[in-house]
Amino acid sequence: MKTCSITMCFYLGLLSMVAVSAPEELHDGQIKREADGRLVAWDEQKKTWLGVEAFWRSYADRRGGLTWGQRKDYPPYEQVKEFDTLIIELKQGPCLMEFFHARWRRGNDVRRWHQLFNEYGSCPHVFD
């Protein structure tokens, strides 16, 4: 039986570590497309993949809930406070909005989860 030199054994050990990769680290708001084309987002608090709308609701719930609910119009400007949230419902679908720096912004523009959030539902159209 042949044995390897210390140097050779060291390199073989390094190669075996490179070949075995660590599992991907998931982060809140990470998004992926399922085989059926549906988008899902990782909810770090629940440690599970959720549909985009369920992810938005979970995010809002951990911050006290949707301040203005799900609606087709924006609330009166003078009643809105910093970090208020709502899901705006336009003909193209829903989009999570967050009031940030004196105006409504898409939730993803404030939180920077993943660019695909801005392509979901009515998010590409909320400023038309």
List the topology elements.
Layout: H1 6-19, E1 31-33, E2 39-43, E3 48-51, H2 52-61, E4 70-71, E5 85-90, E6 93-100, E7 103-106, H3 107-111
Parallel strand pairs: 4-5
Antiparallel strand pairs: 1-2, 2-3, 5-6, 6-7
Structure description:
There is one protein chain. The chain is α+β, with helices and mostly antiparallel strands. 23% of the residues lie in helices and 25% in strands. It has helices spanning 6-19, 52-61, 107-111, and strands at 31-33, 39-43, 48-51, 70-71, 85-90, 93-100, 103-106. A hairpin with a 5-residue loop joins strand 1 (31-33) and strand 2. The longest helix has 14 residues, at 6-19. Residues 14-22 have low confidence and may be disordered.
Overall, the morphology is globular
Q: Which consecutive residue ranges, at least 5 long each, have pLDDT under 50?
A: 14-22
SSE string, helix = H, strand = E?
Answer: HEEEHEEEEH
The end-to-end span amounts to: 74 Å
**In what range is the share of β-strand residues?**
25-35%
Tell how many strands the DSSP assignment holds. 7
Strands of the biggest beta sheet: in what spatial order?
4-5-6-7
Average pLDDT, to the nearest integer? 88
How large is the count of helical segments? Answer: 3
Biggest beta sheet attributes: 4 strands, mixed
Helix content: 10-25%
